[in-house]
Amino acid sequence: MCAADRKRLSPLLLNAVPFEFDRRSLLHVGKVPYAGEEALGKLRQELRTTHVMRRAGQVVEVVATGPRSETPGEVSHMEAGDATRLVTGLLTEWLTAHFVGLGRQVQRRRRSIVVVSGKPEDDLLAVVLPRGFPAPAGIGLRTAFELVVRTVRGQGGTQVLLLLDATAMVFMDVPVQDLVAGGVPVEGLWVCRPSVGDDCRLIQPRRLAGRVAGVKGEELLLREHDEGGSSISARDSTLEPRLEVLATVLAALQRRPSSAQDLLGRLRGAAEKVGMGRERLTRLDAITGYLRRQKVELADGLHGHFAELARVPLRFSKNEVVRKPPLVFDSSGRRTDSWNQRGLDEHGPYDRYQFNPKRLNIAVVCRADLQGRMEQFVEQLLNGVRGVRGGDVGFLRRFALERPYVQVFTAPNATAASYRAAAVAAIEHITDKGQTWQLALVQIEKAMEDLEGDVNPYLVTKAFFLGKGIAVQHVHFETVNQQQEQRAWSLNNMGLACYAKLGGVPWLLPSDQTVSHELVIGLGSYHERGSRFGAGDRYVGVTTVFSGDGRYLVESRTRAVPYREYSTAMLEAVRAAVGHVRQDFAWAPSDPVRLVFHVFKPLKNAEAEAVEALMEELALPHAEFAFLHIADSHSFLVFDESEQGAAAGGGRKKGALAPPRGLLVQLSGHEALLCLKGARELKQAGDGHPSPLLLDLHKGSTFNDITYLSRQVFAFSCNSWRSFQPSPMPITIQYSQLVAENLGKLRNVTGWSDDSIVGRVGRTRWFL
Predict the structure, then answer these.
(1) Among 198-202, 428-432, 462-466, whose mean pLDDT is lowest?
(2) How many CA atoms lie within 13 A of 559 on its CB side?
(3) pTM assigned to the model
(4) Which domains are present in the chain?
């Protein structure tokens, strides 16, 4: 392609390679009755390298990958264009066999193939290690390619895509016994045991066995372990393949254990470089070029070829950059600004005339040896950081508040008992004055976040204050020690979160919906693991965001429930929200109603049907529904070749080739990609290339405007009151996750009850 032609092309690229094939080619498809998962597993194992199969209801469809293999079952003919699910399976098998045949190391994961590059330039460890110190065989850090075959359904039919990504992969395929003999200290490290996979062509899986407590002869004694026992043979085990472990091992083998941190920094730098925009796209271009040169025969009579990396818009999609919504700072809707901080500083908060009390009582809990510095920090929080651009407007002026009553209560040390005693002293002090605290600022350190339950000073103090109806804001000591410019940004964000926790409304979104009543129900989850073994506890937060007076508001009756109960909790939330809005805004029976669900997982058909049944019960039989799965973990990437990157300090740039924030790529009638992070939203140069959100609309939805719904998700990402920076998730999901995380952690504090947030503080954004 000449330079002139390239200039005329869209600068937007997907990490997707279309696979082209004759859709009229006939596939010989065998149909075998489905006889349960065990029987299906045996059939897969028996035919693994010769056939591909897919379950379709009560039938298993089977296709041979070569002309000499007999096809079991009742054989019929299907056009390949009508059997794209089978074509994706055939392509996945072809890719696996092709790279195995080249001698590459290949790993199969649930939905992807991982191919380890054999090129010398992709040996990332060679760049990190000093000259003259080759890595032992079996230890490495190499570039690997992740390949995912999937389909998208557009107006022109179903398209088969190969999604590509490049990553860095750690190898620790050396028996622990050899490492111990080489002087590597393994105490405290995690080890894996061998496991037999169902495909001998591939990298065999390893299973986490436990954490090493000590070495006894040829046995490793395990402190935390799986069901395999409290010891494991050092000869049969390997260390967990992680960058931190790799750095420890290499430093020990070099007889320089103190250099482990330096090595880790260099290893991370090499791994991060693979994930950078330009480096990543260059590698994807290279593997695409290689695949385009291959002759692909998927099955007898079915040939195909790979196209170039897809440019946006695709022939089956459309795209746009969603405009940032103006934020509303007064009830008339006349005071607006697209920049939240500037709007607050010029207009004040939305509820400046309704917020009460104007004069707050603020308790400060901190370690005694940090009292002076905390007093200075609180003063800057209230009145701003002088001489720093953007930081000279403090909490009081920004939110139109009077000078508060502030009192410091100190803990002699950083134990939970000392912090709780300081909190008790604070309550006694304000009670003696016949008043109450509205806000408690609690100084902590980042190391405290690793502590759980009754030994975590912050959780114990937070549980105590919340139980008294007092909003709580933590203050990291590391934030207190920041440079003036950086601290000013932290203080601005902290002030915003505090105002929201006090029940304030900084701003609202404008309303442009066409129905009388639109409710958006958000569900996000938090996974709490007490151990690396077992499923752990998963909690789901339920937050209702609704519009009643023409603007979106955050409904504050938030809660979290165990994962198994989330479906029931969701229905209860819908019932409560409908009742609340009906009463407050005087619904008429004929008013049109729309319910939009933002969920962290694909909604089951039964759950969608339960919501529809609830609407019938509530006499809303004509309500519209949209069930939108918002996923931040998927295989799609978007590159913008026109993005040169944003300044990251020190002459470095961040986010080269990052797509613009707000880019919306509609993949099909029910799927879209929405970019909520661009170059300017990345924090530092090493953050890598940002991933978009994947929005997937459930087939049971009766409201199917994916463009409208995607724009709505973007608007909710602009409405976070946790920080002035744009949110990487819509608040419907973000707030729900925070609710679930907070309540999940507080449950481990003795005496805590979720009923502690019933009342005034529970009606605020206490979880921010």
Answers:
(1) 198-202
(2) 20
(3) 0.92
(4) 17-306 (no CATH), 356-501 (3.40.50.2300), 517-629+697-763 (3.30.420.10)
